[in-house]
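Review form for a predicted model. The reviewer records the input and the model, then writes brief findings.
Reviewer: anonymous (R2)
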Amino acid sequence: MSRIPTGLQSRIMSAEQAAALITSGMTLGMSGFTLVGYPKAIPGALAASGHAKNLTLCTGASVGDDMDGVMARAGIISRRYSYQSNKSTRTLINEGSIGYIDMHLSHVPAFVNRQMGGIHIDAAVIECAAITENGLIPAASMGASDAFVRVADKVIVELNETIPLDIIGMHDVFEIGLPPNAKPIPIVHPLDRVGLNYIPCPPEKIAAIVVTQLKDKSPAFTEPNEISRVIGGHIIDFLKSEVSAGRLPQNLLPLQSGVGSVANAVLQAFADSGFRGLTMYTETFQDSALDLLDQGVVLGATTCAVSFSEAAQERFYGNLAAYREKLVLRSQELSNNPELIRRLGLVSMNTPIEVDIYGNVNSTHVAGSAVMNGIGGSGDFTRNASLNIFATESVGKKGAISCIVPMASHVDHTEHDTQIIVTEQGVADLRWKTPLERAELLIENCSHPDYRPMLRSYLEQAKKTAKSQHTPHDLSQALSWHQRFLETGSMK
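Model under review:
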């Protein structure tokens, strides 16, 4: 099939010509999710010309440096929604040069659709594999593209000819609608398909088409080390104990996994776990998940994006026709939807920056002030999953930082939401535990031996000085570990 209908051939233009349609002060909704499916030519043209300034950039999640980085370094972005992982963007955010609004990923399309708080998308810039008479065939990610296209005044398409047309049929686009008339989502199994395989878009709304052959940048995954393998083993042992106790079925519940090297390593542990017939309902499908699919450990998955190394990306695109039956690409409004997460009963696995002794989790900030990436989908899944697990190494920066601290310097997931904490030291099951019982478990089971005496000492001091014994803290010392790290480079 042709990638562009005959009636739209006249809209084909250069990236520079398309970029000229964007003017200062606009709010742009750009496709992309975890370095996949984002426009690459138009951001570069915008950065090079510099004609459009004070732009608000909204994406589904993180995108590549050839979009986020080049626009940030060009100084044309003034506000950024909702999740990012780019070094240049992060630096400018923490310097105060870019205003950053970190949001739960399920909220982004919901806020855009309702134009909550007055946000309006002036132009949607979407990477696609093809355009049909009815709409757009997205790339290998959905993100919030459907919402951006739905509400934008105009749509600019980057049509990427490197994406095989076998991707057609992998997407499932379902419009929920707006309250008070929002529709229930008729999904009861991760592989249910309930919508369209394209994003509806009237032809007259498409202002420009830029044809490219620019490939996504692949994330770099580090090979699992002994510590991450131990963490993965702890999680597998814990899940098996839940099965033995009758709290989980033999094939568990649909799995959700966050992004990054630790999450990738944890999924690898399932390969030799003995678990079979698994499914996934997640926002990102990584290398280890693709391996599990090929091995038959995982039968199929819903995801918002596929985020692969270069080798895995070649394997995926080379076998799209086969994977199309096993993978469903949905927008983040569905992949991260609380209604579906609770109905399907997920086992959610994510990575924290730090956890305090009462189980409050910091996923986003270093030393309370400097943002790393953002909360992403971890909040959507943590609060609504049947079982949530946070897994991390017990120390960072070669032991200079303890990941178990007296008080979290920033809280994204409160003690009311967190259930299971895992480090290479062991597992803390916080369910049905009082705050003091949680503290004992986290200190004894999860903290590193180098920091364990310090944590015990802090807890005893807190009991002596706190007016209340429900959740005792010594407020004069609660954040002293972070202060010491800022002053000396170590929490010790």
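Findings: The chain has a mean pLDDT of 96.
Further findings: The first strand starts at residue 27 and ends at 30.
Recommendation: see findings above.
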